[in-house]
Design brief:
The complex is a heterodimer of chains A (232) and B (491).
Chain A lengths: L1 H5 L6 H17 L3 H17 L3 H23 L3 H29 L2 H10 L4 H30 L6 H6 L1 H28 L19 H15 L4
Chain B lengths: L1 E10 L7 E8 L4 E5 L6 H8 L2 H4 L3 E9 L2 E2 L5 H7 E4 L12 H11 L4 H14 L15 H14 L4 E5 L7 H16 L3 E5 L12 E6 L2 E6 L1 H6 L2 H6 L23 E12 L2 E12 L3 E5 L6 H8 L6 E7 L2 E2 L2 H7 E4 L12 H6 L7 H10 L15 H14 L4 E5 L7 H16 L3 E5 L3 H7 L2 E6 L2 E7 L5 H7 L9
Parallel strand pairs in B: 3-8, 3-9, 6-7, 7-8, 13-18, 13-19, 16-17, 17-18
Antiparallel strand pairs in B: 1-2, 1-4, 4-5, 9-10, 11-12, 11-14, 14-15, 19-20
Helix pairs in contact in B: 4-5, 4-6, 5-6, 6-7, 13-14
Classes of the chains: A mainly alpha (232), B alpha/beta (491).
Chain lengths: 232, 491
């Protein structure tokens, strides 16, 4: 059991970054809606493989709805359609990359990420802020919980309806405390990391073993094949 | 080993000096305790020693800090970090990993130790600090006290020569403070140099070789534990110091002479979280003017209970009656207010005055001004709430609750990280609210504070309400036992 922990069950962070680039490219040049649908299916399968099943399934369902709506809209004519198609087109381009980034962020441990970045010889000035950001993201959810509670007690509804009724006011109520908190958290995290020598220029070692496995190669090949399909 | 010479410092953007001509000599293996009021400069000194000033926090520096005769300002951060380990106040923002083991390894990974040594160091750390139970767990599942243990372990694994701790006990319950004491004892036995800035002094007296009292950025005096204990209590309180011995604390607030009729009644309330039952079958009654302390170990469900009182917790069964009427969740939200441990979450507006009007259609100007005057906030009326000090922010939150005419006030750890003066101020505030016929619940681990102001204690353990009593000299022993006062270091 403990041996397992030292082995990373997921993919190498470098693989994930490579996948993200492939995905951006594929979404950009996607020739048809069906193709994009395949891309999303592929990403969701990857998500299930990375053990974020719930997230992958929900993302897929949402996409499926968007997909169906688009398919129906294509058959109706009119000005309204043109506007909506343009909007949905944008969503189709961005959505796959969004899901993939979500999977990446939730499955990459910060140490893994730092080690991988250093192995790619990316300068510290880039790596450290990114690492702090990666660590900060999950705390937003926690912070939001507290802020919502505080809003309920002040009779300000943080729900969608409340937002609709009074968008500026609701946004302010969320962002002011969230930003204040973010500033403090980022500061404290940075301090904790530099006093533990994150800036040390020696080659960083890793408690969790990092390296490419057959699964990394296999998945990258799958994505490359999918990307190449655009041009056939 | 460490010499501070004529050190003066002013943070960027401040007008007055934060440190004035500090001279301090620290020998190898010494245990130094820095104490004094909030904002006296304890933390600033710590930041000089671990190099955060001037490398991270900017300002105007005069004087020198020497580490083994070498100027500390010329040593890069990462070199310093090998020799000096730091533990900070907030356990939530000190860790970088998801699992305990890699977190312990984080510091030594940065030093680039070979894998074999990494594993070895992690293992010795786990053995030395008795963390076997936590090893392999997810850090997000740990309590604040346990997280702080891991933060300490990560520093311990780096095997530094000097350990710096900046108010490490602020968020801990008494049991965790006792473990912290044991860890510090290990460091002392290993002849490590320890420098700790702290408000709570009681757990450090038997360890400290030197107690440095700082006031307004200057070192006023240096004591030994014996000398400090010998000072009269009144003088120590004047110096703004917290209790040295929890055993001798007197109960200041006894049960109110006339008992009002109960206004709040809770009947067999059970609370759930993800199908787990957190609290089972809670029933009690409470009346206006009471100040009720809610105590129990970290993670026993105190926060969930306070959320439920405010109507913020969804999964519950049982009934809450107010003035004999059964309350829905929405109604609970209307009558109650939660002052969070981190008040920043509940301050939204651009000025204190606007904060008080927020969300109210026709704010009553006169009433707002009266409330602000009552809470000594009138002079800050136009100030941005986020510039205020912790205690002042707390009072703004209280002002808001009064203007919204909330009658049930719940405070979550209102005294974490507060010095004696601010703690007394909070207890005066509570008494004022009590005389205004509010019903006050306070979740806290702070024995000294609870003795100052509470009438009654409710103790949760093992997902049940196990004790409910008024504090007086009879129940004092029980109270101490519940809060686990009288650990090894007090004997």
């Amino acid at each position: 059991m403990k041996k397992d922990l030292k082995q990373s069950y997921g993919l190498d962070p470098r693989t994930k970054i490579c996948l993200l680039f492939l995905c951006v490219f594929a979404a950009l040049v996607a020739p048809s809606l069906k193709y994009e649908f395949c891309l999303v299916v592929m990403i969701c399968l990857l998500g299930i493989y990375q053990r974020v099943t719930r997230y992958a399934l929900i993302s897929f369902l949402i996409y499926f709805l968007i997909y169906k709506t688009t398919a129906i809209l294509v058959q109706i004519n009119g000005n309204f359609q043109v506007a909506l198609i343009a909007f949905l087109g944008l969503i189709h381009k961005v959505y796959p990359c969004g899901i993939l980034s979500g999977i990446m962020i939730s499955t990459t441990r910060v140490t893994e990420f730092i080690t991988a970045m250093y192995k790619l010889h990316i300068p510290q000035k880039v790596v450290i802020p990114l690492a702090v950001m990666l660590r900060y993201l999950p705390t937003i959810k926690e912070d939001m919980g507290y802020i919502k509670d505080a809003m309920y007690l002040r009779d300000v509804s943080p729900s969608f309806l409340g937002f609709f009724k009074n968008p500026l006011f609701t946004a302010e109520c969320i962002y002011v405390p969230l930003m204040m908190r973010a500033l403090q958290t980022a500061n404290e995290l940075t301090v904790a990391s530099i006093t533990r020598g994150i800036e040390n220029p020696v080659k960083r070692t890793s408690y969790i073993q990092l390296g490419f496995h057959i699964r990394d190669i296999f998945i990258v090949i799958c994505f490359i094949v999918l990307t190449c399909l655009c041009f056939i | 080993m460490l010499t501070i010479e004529n050190l003066s410092f002013r943070y960027k953007g401040r007008e007055a000096n934060n440190l004035k001509n500090i001279n301090l000599d620290i020998q190898e293996g010494e245990f130094v305790l820095l104490c004094g009021r909030s904002g006296c400069g304890k933390t600033t000194i710590i930041r000089f020693i671990n190099g955060l000033i001037p490398q991270f926090y900017k300002g105007k520096v005069e004087g020198k800090v020497l580490l083994d005769k070498q100027d500390i300002f010329e040593i890069p951060m990462y070199e310093l970090s090998k020799r000096i380990g730091s533990v900070f106040q907030n356990p939530r923002t000190q860790f970088f990993n998801v699992d305990v083991d890699s977190e312990i390894a984080f510091g030594i990974e940065n030093q680039g130790l070979p894998r074999k040594q990494l594993e070895q160091r992690v293992q010795t750390t786990i053995n030395d600090l008795q963390l076997e139970k936590l090893s392999g767990m997810n850090l997000h599942d740990l309590s604040g006290g346990e997280k702080q243990k891991i933060a300490f372990a990560s520093t311990y694994a780096m095997d530094s020569e000097i350990y710096l701790l900046d108010e490490p006990s602020s968020n801990l319950d008494n049991e965790s403070i006792e473990s912290l004491h044991d860890y510090l004892q290990i460091l002392k036995n290993k002849k490590k140099t320890v420098i700790i800035a702290e408000h709570r002094l009681h757990y450090l007296l038997d360890l400290a070789d030197k107690i440095v009292y700082i006031e307004d950025g200057t070192i006023q005096n240096i004591y030994t534990s014996e000398l400090l204990t010998a000072l009269p209590l009144l003088q120590r309180e004047k110096m703004g110091l917290r209790a040295l011995d929890l055993q001798t604390i007197k109960i200041k607030n006894q049960k109110p002479a006339q008992q009002n009729d109960p206004v709040l009644a809770i009947e067999s309330l059970s609370l759930f979280y993800k199908k787990h039952c957190i609290l089972k079958d809670i029933s009690f009654k409470a009346s206006y003017g009471e100040i009720i302390g809610i105590v129990g170990c970290n993670g026993v469900g105190k926060s969930t209970f306070s959320k439920a009182l405010c109507g913020l917790h969804k999964k519950s069964s049982g009934k809450i009656f107010y003035h004999g009427e059964k309350m829905t969740r929405q109604q609970c939200m209307k009558i109650s207010y939660l002052v969070m441990q981190d008040v920043n979450y509940e301050l939204f507006a651009e000025s204190v005055y606007q904060e008080c009007c927020l969300g109210i259609k026709n704010p009553n100007k006169k009433m707002i001004e009266e409330t602000l005057t009552l809470l000594d906030l009138m002079q800050y009326k136009d100030v941005h709430p986020h510039i205020l000090s912790g205690g002042q922010k707390q009072r703004v939150a209280v002002a808001v609750s009064m203007i919204c005419q909330k009658e049930l006030l719940i405070f979550d750890e209102p005294t974490s990280g507060l010095d004696y003066d601010s703690m007394i101020q909070v207890s005066h505030l509570f008494k004022k609210l009590s005389s205004l016929n509010k019903l006050i619940f306070v979740v806290s681990h702070d024995y000294e504070f609870l003795c100052q102001c509470c009438h009654r204690i409710i103790h949760f353990d093992d997902s049940q309400l196990v004790h409910d009593f008024f504090i007086d000299n009879h129940s004092k022993e029980l109270f101490k036992k519940i809060l686990k006062i009288g650990g090894s270091y007090n004997e």
